[in-house]
Amino acid sequence: MAVTVLTHPLIQHKLTILRDIETGVKIFREVVGEISMLMCYEAMRELPLEEVTVMTPVAEARVKALAGKKLALVPILRAGLGMVDGILTLVPSAKVAHIGLYRDPETLEPVEYYCKMPTDIADRDCFILDPMLATGGTAVAAAKFLKDAGAKSIKLLTVLSAPPGVEKVEKAHPDVEIITCAIDDRLNDHGYIVPGLGDAGDRIFGTK
Ligand code: URA
Fold this sequence. Notes:
Elements: E1 3-5, H1 9-19, H2 25-43, E2 49-55, E3 60-66, E4 71-77, H3 84-90, E5 95-96, E6 98-103, E7 110-116, E8 125-129, E9 132-133, H4 137-148, E10 153-158, E11 160-161, H5 163-172, E12 177-180, E13 186-187, E14 193-194, H6 200-205
Parallel strand pairs: 1-12, 4-5, 4-6, 4-8, 8-10, 9-11, 10-12
Antiparallel strand pairs: 2-3, 6-7, 13-14
Helix pairs in contact: 1-2, 2-3
The chain binds uracil.
Protein backbone atom coordinates (compact mmCIF):
# COMPACT_ATOMS: atom_id res chain seq x y z
CA MET A 1 0.00 0.00 0.00
CA ALA A 2 1.19 3.50 -0.81
CA VAL A 3 2.85 5.98 1.44
CA THR A 4 1.59 9.40 0.42
CA VAL A 5 3.81 12.36 1.32
CA LEU A 6 1.85 15.60 1.12
CA THR A 7 4.16 18.05 -0.59
CA HIS A 8 1.62 20.87 -0.91
CA PRO A 9 3.37 24.20 -0.11
CA LEU A 10 0.78 25.16 2.49
CA ILE A 11 1.33 21.92 4.37
CA GLN A 12 5.13 22.21 4.15
CA HIS A 13 4.95 25.80 5.44
CA LYS A 14 2.82 24.75 8.40
CA LEU A 15 5.15 21.84 9.13
CA THR A 16 8.07 24.29 9.33
CA ILE A 17 6.15 26.29 11.94
CA LEU A 18 5.66 23.09 13.95
CA ARG A 19 9.35 22.19 13.76
CA ASP A 20 10.50 25.62 15.02
CA ILE A 21 11.52 25.50 18.69
CA GLU A 22 10.30 29.11 19.01
CA THR A 23 6.68 28.14 18.22
CA GLY A 24 4.68 28.31 21.45
CA VAL A 25 1.89 26.03 22.60
CA LYS A 26 -1.01 28.16 21.30
CA ILE A 27 0.28 28.38 17.74
CA PHE A 28 1.55 24.81 17.79
CA ARG A 29 -1.89 23.51 18.75
CA GLU A 30 -3.63 25.65 16.14
CA VAL A 31 -1.26 24.62 13.36
CA VAL A 32 -1.58 20.91 14.22
CA GLY A 33 -5.34 21.42 13.80
CA GLU A 34 -4.92 23.21 10.47
CA ILE A 35 -2.48 20.67 9.07
CA SER A 36 -4.78 17.83 10.16
CA MET A 37 -7.66 19.45 8.30
CA LEU A 38 -5.56 19.65 5.14
CA MET A 39 -4.44 16.04 5.57
CA CYS A 40 -8.02 14.89 5.95
CA TYR A 41 -8.95 16.67 2.73
CA GLU A 42 -6.29 14.59 0.96
CA ALA A 43 -7.21 11.37 2.77
CA MET A 44 -10.79 11.71 1.60
CA ARG A 45 -9.84 12.17 -2.05
CA GLU A 46 -11.20 8.77 -3.07
CA LEU A 47 -14.47 8.77 -1.16
CA PRO A 48 -17.27 7.47 -3.39
CA LEU A 49 -19.75 9.94 -4.86
CA GLU A 50 -23.31 9.36 -5.97
CA GLU A 51 -25.56 11.33 -8.32
CA VAL A 52 -28.32 13.33 -6.69
CA THR A 53 -30.83 15.84 -8.00
CA VAL A 54 -31.03 19.34 -6.54
CA MET A 55 -33.06 22.33 -7.56
CA THR A 56 -30.81 25.38 -8.00
CA PRO A 57 -32.39 28.84 -8.17
CA VAL A 58 -32.16 28.43 -11.96
CA ALA A 59 -32.87 24.80 -12.87
CA GLU A 60 -32.90 21.19 -11.76
CA ALA A 61 -29.37 19.72 -11.72
CA ARG A 62 -27.97 16.19 -11.54
CA VAL A 63 -24.91 16.63 -9.32
CA LYS A 64 -22.57 14.71 -6.99
CA ALA A 65 -22.80 14.11 -3.28
CA LEU A 66 -20.83 11.89 -0.91
CA ALA A 67 -22.29 8.40 -1.03
CA GLY A 68 -22.83 8.13 2.68
CA LYS A 69 -19.51 6.52 3.61
CA LYS A 70 -19.01 6.66 7.34
CA LEU A 71 -15.82 7.78 9.02
CA ALA A 72 -14.24 6.96 12.38
CA LEU A 73 -11.38 9.07 13.68
CA VAL A 74 -9.09 7.06 15.91
CA PRO A 75 -6.69 9.34 17.79
CA ILE A 76 -3.94 7.58 19.65
CA LEU A 77 -3.83 9.17 23.10
CA ARG A 78 -2.61 11.61 23.83
CA ALA A 79 -0.92 13.45 20.96
CA GLY A 80 -3.48 12.18 18.41
CA LEU A 81 -6.16 14.21 20.21
CA GLY A 82 -4.53 17.33 18.80
CA MET A 83 -5.58 16.24 15.30
CA VAL A 84 -9.26 15.55 16.04
CA ASP A 85 -10.86 19.00 16.08
CA GLY A 86 -9.36 20.11 12.78
CA ILE A 87 -10.78 17.05 11.04
CA LEU A 88 -14.16 17.35 12.75
CA THR A 89 -14.39 20.87 11.32
CA LEU A 90 -14.50 19.25 7.87
CA VAL A 91 -16.42 16.09 8.80
CA PRO A 92 -18.58 16.93 11.81
CA SER A 93 -20.52 13.65 11.65
CA ALA A 94 -17.44 11.45 12.07
CA LYS A 95 -17.37 9.27 15.16
CA VAL A 96 -14.33 9.34 17.40
CA ALA A 97 -12.80 6.16 18.80
CA HIS A 98 -9.95 6.38 21.29
CA ILE A 99 -6.95 4.16 21.67
CA GLY A 100 -4.68 4.71 24.65
CA LEU A 101 -1.23 3.36 23.96
CA TYR A 102 2.02 4.68 25.36
CA ARG A 103 5.56 3.77 24.56
CA ASP A 104 7.40 2.02 27.34
CA PRO A 105 10.45 4.27 27.77
CA GLU A 106 12.74 1.26 28.25
CA THR A 107 11.58 -1.09 25.49
CA LEU A 108 9.92 1.58 23.28
CA GLU A 109 7.12 -1.02 22.83
CA PRO A 110 3.42 0.08 22.96
CA VAL A 111 1.41 -0.61 26.10
CA GLU A 112 -2.42 -0.35 25.90
CA TYR A 113 -4.23 1.42 28.74
CA TYR A 114 -7.55 2.57 27.21
CA CYS A 115 -9.74 1.69 24.22
CA LYS A 116 -13.27 2.75 23.28
CA MET A 117 -14.76 2.16 19.80
CA PRO A 118 -18.10 2.85 18.15
CA THR A 119 -20.06 -0.41 17.86
CA ASP A 120 -20.20 -0.13 14.04
CA ILE A 121 -16.44 0.32 13.59
CA ALA A 122 -16.44 -2.52 11.01
CA ASP A 123 -18.61 -0.40 8.66
CA ARG A 124 -16.50 2.72 8.87
CA ASP A 125 -13.43 4.08 7.13
CA CYS A 126 -10.97 4.45 10.01
CA PHE A 127 -8.36 7.21 10.17
CA ILE A 128 -5.76 6.49 12.85
CA LEU A 129 -4.41 9.85 14.04
CA ASP A 130 -0.95 10.22 15.52
CA PRO A 131 1.24 13.25 14.77
CA MET A 132 4.46 11.21 14.94
CA LEU A 133 5.29 7.89 13.26
CA ALA A 134 8.60 7.10 14.94
CA THR A 135 9.36 3.42 15.66
CA GLY A 136 5.95 2.40 14.32
CA GLY A 137 5.19 0.19 17.33
CA THR A 138 2.17 2.23 18.42
CA ALA A 139 0.72 2.56 14.94
CA VAL A 140 1.11 -1.17 14.27
CA ALA A 141 -0.60 -2.00 17.57
CA ALA A 142 -3.43 0.47 16.87
CA ALA A 143 -4.07 -0.97 13.39
CA LYS A 144 -4.11 -4.49 14.84
CA PHE A 145 -6.55 -3.40 17.51
CA LEU A 146 -8.87 -1.92 14.88
CA LYS A 147 -8.66 -5.02 12.70
CA ASP A 148 -9.41 -7.25 15.70
CA ALA A 149 -12.50 -5.07 16.25
CA GLY A 150 -13.57 -5.73 12.63
CA ALA A 151 -12.27 -2.63 10.81
CA LYS A 152 -11.53 -3.26 7.13
CA SER A 153 -10.57 0.16 5.82
CA ILE A 154 -7.76 1.89 7.69
CA LYS A 155 -5.56 4.88 6.89
CA LEU A 156 -2.83 6.26 9.12
CA LEU A 157 -2.57 10.06 9.23
CA THR A 158 0.68 11.23 10.73
CA VAL A 159 2.21 14.70 10.51
CA LEU A 160 5.82 13.52 10.56
CA SER A 161 7.37 10.09 9.96
CA ALA A 162 10.71 8.35 10.24
CA PRO A 163 11.90 5.50 7.99
CA PRO A 164 11.80 2.76 10.68
CA GLY A 165 8.16 3.55 11.47
CA VAL A 166 7.12 3.61 7.83
CA GLU A 167 8.85 0.26 7.21
CA LYS A 168 7.31 -1.35 10.28
CA VAL A 169 3.76 -0.31 9.36
CA GLU A 170 4.21 -1.33 5.72
CA LYS A 171 5.47 -4.75 6.78
CA ALA A 172 2.84 -5.45 9.44
CA HIS A 173 -0.12 -3.85 7.65
CA PRO A 174 0.49 -3.57 3.89
CA ASP A 175 -3.19 -2.69 3.44
CA VAL A 176 -2.94 0.45 5.60
CA GLU A 177 -2.15 3.61 3.64
CA ILE A 178 0.17 6.06 5.38
CA ILE A 179 -0.51 9.73 4.76
CA THR A 180 2.21 12.00 6.09
CA CYS A 181 3.68 15.46 5.53
CA ALA A 182 7.37 14.42 5.57
CA ILE A 183 9.65 11.48 6.18
CA ASP A 184 12.64 12.67 8.20
CA ASP A 185 16.16 11.22 8.38
CA ARG A 186 16.23 8.93 11.37
CA LEU A 187 15.45 8.28 15.04
CA ASN A 188 17.79 9.20 17.88
CA ASP A 189 18.64 6.89 20.81
CA HIS A 190 15.47 7.98 22.65
CA GLY A 191 13.21 7.14 19.72
CA TYR A 192 12.70 10.78 18.74
CA ILE A 193 12.49 11.75 15.09
CA VAL A 194 15.53 13.74 13.83
CA PRO A 195 15.29 16.59 12.99
CA GLY A 196 11.61 16.16 13.91
CA LEU A 197 9.67 18.62 16.01
CA GLY A 198 10.24 17.33 19.54
CA ASP A 199 7.60 15.69 21.71
CA ALA A 200 4.31 16.35 19.92
CA GLY A 201 2.16 15.64 23.00
CA ASP A 202 4.14 18.01 25.21
CA ARG A 203 4.05 20.73 22.58
CA ILE A 204 0.30 20.38 21.94
CA PHE A 205 -0.65 20.31 25.62
CA GLY A 206 2.11 22.55 27.01
CA THR A 207 3.37 19.95 29.46
CA LYS A 208 7.04 20.82 29.15
N1 URA B 1 6.88 11.01 19.56
C1 URA B 1 7.06 12.35 19.57
O1 URA B 1 6.27 13.09 20.13
N2 URA B 1 8.16 12.86 18.95
C2 URA B 1 9.05 12.07 18.32
O2 URA B 1 10.02 12.59 17.76
C3 URA B 1 8.83 10.69 18.32
C4 URA B 1 7.73 10.18 18.93
